[in-house]
Amino acid sequence: MDGWNWRALLIGFTGALILLGVLFFVVGAKPILESLTSADPALVAMTLAFVLAWLGAWGLLFRTVLETLGIGLPIRMSFFAYASAAFANNVTPFGQAGGELLTAGLISKVADARYETGLAGIATVDVLNVVSSLVLIFVGVGYYATTAIIGERLETAVGSAVALVVVLGTSMILIWRYQESITDRIAVGVGKIADWLPGKTADPDAVAENVAQRLRRFFDRIGQMATQRRQLAIAFGFSLLGWLFQTIALLTAFAAIGSSVPIYIALFVIPLGNLAGATPLPGGLGGVEAAFVALLVPTTGIPAATVTAAVLIYRGLVYWLPVVIGGGSVVVFGTRTVA
Q1: Among 43, 80, 229, 307, which is least packed by CB within 10 angstroms?
Q2: d(CA 309, CA 306)
Q3: Tens digit of pLDDT per residue, the chain (339 long)?
Q4: What backbone torsions phi and psi does residue 137 show, to the nearest 5 degrees?
Q5: How much is the pTM?
């Protein structure tokens, strides 16, 4: 990372720590710490195991999507490759929106593929995860509605999720429909920027043509994957499996501090809470935890301190485990690339 990235990362983590500090202040630091210190170590270890299972499931999702592009990865490698992708998402602002470019570069190195091919692969993984999360939201909220009155906060969260998916879906349809026009406009724009740069060393027309070729290859890869329906169906299944492992991990975290949450609540709280990952914080750190607490307290009736402690156990593993494993993998992959 250059100096600006390090400063951006420092600012992001500072903001996350401030948010977490506010959460501790509002809920109460003492009862949160008491709940955390009373957690059952065996159940915390089980939570960690389910988090590893989530990484494994989404690693297989990643591998299946890459197979549709003609990129083969060993199963073991797919686990560390996805952990590296999760690492990139967790250390860049705006969550997954910020880590995709880094992840695409990683794929191009690990799998010896073109950058735009890796970008198409990770973008497809994200789309499948959004669609599968929406399925779980509707299932969980639908069942919850049969047992309790849906509060205004939950209505707002679900409405925001639906609106976001509609906007993303509409945007993808329009981008696909007008891909040629978009490609030409972006290429021309980048060429003009290259022409304006002081001390330019590249031909602006050549730069524009290179960008246009890369964008066309990107759209070609997306079209290629769209024809692989069986593989995409398998990938969708791995996506759902990953969400379910996250759900079980959250339930186990609550069990570790002596509480229980209905599974249908966890089904919709996890994907809804992760929407806060779109905040300009590294991996949504701080914002996601606050969103989880805001959703779980009114829907479960469990004291805020207990909920916060369980969320911190769950999120501590979901956030930091990929950072440790993925960060180490990035170093190893980088070393192999150089070697």
Answers
A1: 229
A2: 5
A3: 444 466 767 777 888 889 889 999 999 999 999 999 999 999 999 999 999 999 999 999 988 988 887 777 788 888 888 888 888 888 876 655 556 777 777 777 776 777 777 777 888 888 888 889 888 888 888 888 787 766 666 766 667 666 766 776 787 788 878 878 888 788 777 777 766 766 555 666 676 776 777 677 677 767 766 677 788 899 999 999 999 999 999 999 999 999 999 999 999 899 888 877 667 778 788 889 998 998 899 888 899 999 999 999 999 999 999 999 988 887 777 644 433
A4: -60, -45
A5: 0.82
> Would you state the structure tokens that stand for residue 316, as one six-digit string?
């501590």
Structure tokens at 265: 């609540």
What type of residue is 303? P
